[in-house]
Amino acid sequence: MNAPLIDPFARAIRYLRVSVTDRCDFRCTYCMAEHMTFLPKAELLTLEELDRLCTAFVHMGVEKLRITGGEPLVRKGIMTFFRAMSRHLDSGALKELTLTTNGSQLARFAQELVDCGIRRINVSLDTLDPAKFAEITRWGRLPQVLDGIEAAKAAGLRVKINAVALKGFNEDELFPLVDWCAREGHDLTFIEVMPMGDLGGEDRLSQYWALTDLRARLAERFTLTDLAERTGGPARYVRLEETGQKIGFITPLTHNFCESCNRVRLTCTGELYMCLGQEDMADLRAPLRASPDDTGLEQAIRAAIARKPKGHDFDYSRQAIAGQMTRHMSHTGG
Ligand code: SAM
User: What is the C-alpha separation between 92 and 231, in angstroms, rounded?
Assistant: First the structure.
């Protein structure tokens, strides 16, 4: 174990979110254009490079690794990577290995994920209506995802559903979603939609459904108790007293979580972002590829963490944030 990563504001970096691919088998309208140009393969980190990078972070004190994308489970050979990462769980260096997925490949991979030491996963699901699901994901089919979630549950994985709150789209499904999660034993978190620039003609602003409003509607039916629980990220939780359910709210554009921020994000090309709301990043691919020895890589990581800002402003250009999101899509989902 090397010296831990501590930023200039005395925050220890314990959480790394890693996008392993920019590709996805869905085309959610708020996330991607239907006809995407993906990165050339040479730009992407190989699975071995991802391993080296994640391992370097684990050796510097990262305890929680969340794998995301794109859709992580469509990356060829990704199970080799999960299996390799499980050695850090076995050694005790890593406390949690987890992923955020659209669920399409879970029926195939759930058991293997469990075998790799994964205990909890986040599945993104915005609607329980098959027609609306096909509309919002363009290429996704609801039964496939529900089967995947079922398989995950059967394999013993704890599932958290992440639903993007979309005005005029799933407003009417607030209670059906809450009730379904209660019946199935899934946790549930709502995500405020982020403006993502022009993704092909959708009117993004009209999709914005403030979570304050969603919360007020929940309070019409349930007694809400705020929970003190913090994960270091942009999520806040309440308990519904009538059912005992925990409901999360992720509002990426607010900055009330900066003080306890313990996380950084790595893109599938090896760019390290130190803050959700700022464009500053460090290229880790160059030092990674420059030498098989990790000395230069470690120096580059430490230099990057030394630049982690105190926080980001709500005023920070939404467009700039959106531009960043479009590139690596690894901002939300717990
Ligand atoms: N493919 C995986 C999945 O579907 O969970 C991981 C990547 S996906 C980009 C991660 C999360 O970001 C999903 O929950 C997705 O709904 C959310 N997301 C994508 N675009 C968003 C946007 N414009 N605003 C808010 N959340 C968004």
Answer: 20
